[in-house]
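Researcher: Here's a chain I'd like modeled. Treat it as a single chain, no partners, no ligands.
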Amino acid sequence: MMITCTNLKKSFGDKQVLKDINLSVAKGSIVGLLGPSGAGKTTIIKILTGQLSYDSGSVRVFDKEASKLTGEDKKRFGIMMDRFGLYDRLTCVDNLKIFADIYGIKHIRIKETLDEVGLKDDYKKLAANLSKGMRARLQLARVFMHSPEIIFLDEPTAGLDPQSMRAIHRIILKKKQEGCTIFLTTHNMEEAHKLCDNIFLLNEGKIVEQGTPEDICRRYNVNKRIKLHLTNGRDLELSQESTDTAREVFELLNKGEISTIHSTEPTLETVFLELTGKALEEGA
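Model: Modeled as a single isolated chain. Structure tokens:
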């Protein structure tokens, strides 16, 4: 495992913000930490990357305790936290030159990375003149430039329009295909379902559920019903457990009367609501 947390606890003063966190991240996977603002997602990333100490438990990254990570170990990270790290008065190229020099990367890598994130034609633009989506892509370019082994993304698409969000998703999935391990936080359940191999649902500092998005949704599919939309405009809902359902659906199909058919598995949003009584985007 690239990352393992065992019984991780963290408090700020009298307030315990992380309670017995247990999670693991396999090499080459995308793992999502899903929860509302204030659940403890950013705190976990800061602990995993050695930016913040923890009270008790074990946190291992690259099979080494996080508290003992060296500067060389941390160079194997790529970190995107919120929207920091860009210099508005510099161009895209000049922003990346700063980080290239810090990491000792040849400048030829700058335009290669801008091309990777779809900014090849915008390299001379000032960061201040970029749209939100383009700024997010420039931040990802900074994260990717030194070819990190583990990428930490804290709410990478927060505040972006759907088109920009899809562009960021394509970039993230391409990095996974290249063998990167990606740990991301989000309160966007659709994003988690699309990107993540495994997710951990976090609420008030405690993991309340974990697994693949599909497994979690199936686990809470207590209604086991299907919904039909008929060609006459009528909606029909049938129990999957009834012996008459298959016959009824077959008859409607034969008559060409079914327009659409859907199962009624819950979403990650509804699972989280059932477990905690609050919405994933509450307070975001």
